[in-house]
Design a protein that fits this description.
Elements: H1 2-22, E1 25-31, E2 37-39, E3 49-53, E4 60-64, E5 69-71, E6 76-77, H2 80-84, E7 90-92, E8 101-107, E9 110-119, E10 122-128, E11 134-137, E12 144-150, E13 156-163, E14 166-169, H3 171-174, E15 177-179, E16 182-185, E17 194-200, E18 206-214, H4 221-227, H5 231-283
Parallel strand pairs: 1-9, 10-18
Antiparallel strand pairs: 2-7, 3-4, 3-8, 4-5, 6-7, 8-9, 11-16, 12-13, 12-17, 13-14, 15-16, 17-18
Length: 284
């Protein structure tokens, strides 16, 4: 009985090994939004190599054979020199949220590699004043849910679900939330401070994380714009003060000259009168 059990174990191990080796290798690659991504695949192939989105096997993105490589779809490429060396990697030049998916590499119509492309979650810090509207970009067309982690008491939970243009929120947020091209939460208060996470409902893939702070003492943007004086305004003010000072000095100098002239004329007139008087007295 023990020998039979051992033989059964060996048989199961062999079956598992054969199944694993005959299947395609699977892994995932994670990059930042709009970065290039390389989906690795190492295998010798003397025939045609193609890359496709896994659930669209007839929609070829890029391909290689012994002669050359071709980018069938813009933004996807393979390198022929690497193909000849057994490096069948696919390069996606601009990874965005629409390109998140499973990709399959085939050699002569046989699957040899499966690679998932994922994007690092976006992270945003938002500072607001009470009464303003919080805008949460959804970034993807997949059904998503919004999870809120409160800064005040540490509680967390789902507050809204967005699915194909429809919005469903908990009672607390139903009257304040609305859906346009983004999810909007009106009339925020300091108690709304915390972390808002946008994640795909089906896969729980995190898309965007917002760290939100609502404070009464934040400077108001309009008020700041009113109090800020541009550099050219300061220079103009200085020039105006200098010009007015120069004009004032000129007026003072002219007034002094006028007073001196008037005094001189008055003194000169008196001298002439005295001379005439002396002359008249001498004649008499």
């Amino acid at each position: 009985m023990q020998s039979c059990s051992s033989a059964l174990c060996v048989l199961i191990l062999l079956i598992t090994t054969v199944t694993t080796s005959s299947g395609s290798a699977s892994l995932s690659v994670t990059v930042k939004l709009n970065d290039s991504a390389t989906l690795p695949c190492s295998e010798r192939c003397s025939g045609l190599v193609t890359w496709t989105v896994s659930h669209k096997p007839t929609d070829v993105l890029a391909e290689c054979d012994q002669t050359s490589c071709r980018s069938v779809k813009e933004g996807y490429q393979m390198i022929h020199d690497q193909y000849l060396k057994g490096n069948l990697s696919l390069t996606i030049t601009d990874a965005d949220f629409t390109k998140r998916d499973w990709y399959t590499c085939t050699c002569n119509n046989k699957d040899i590699c499966d690679v998932a492309l994922q994007l690092e979650p976006l992270r945003s810090s938002v500072q607001m004043k009470p009464g303003e509207t919080l805008v949460l970009d959804l970034d993807v067309s997949d059904p998503v849910e919004v999870i809120y982690n409160s800064r005040a008491n540490g509680s967390s939970g789902h507050i809204c679900i967005v699915d194909r243009g429809s919005l469903e929120c908990t009672v607390e947020y139903a009257q304040r939330a609305s859906l346009t091209s983004a999810l909007e939460l009106k009339g925020v208060t300091p108690s709304d401070s915390g972390v808002y996470t946008i994640q795909v409902t089906r896969t729980e893939e995190v898309i965007h994380v917002y760290t939100v702070t609502i404070q009464d003492d934040l400077p108001h943007p309009d008020r700041d714009q009113e109090t800020v004086v541009p550099v050219w305004g300061i220079i103009l003010l200085i020039l105006l003060v200098v010009l007015m000072g120069g004009c004032f000095c000129n007026v003072v100098v002219l007034q002094r000259r006028r007073n001196i002239m008037q005094r001189w004329r008055k003194t000169d007139g008196q001298r002439k009168k005295e001379k005439k008087k002396e002359k008249w007295l001498s004649l008499t």
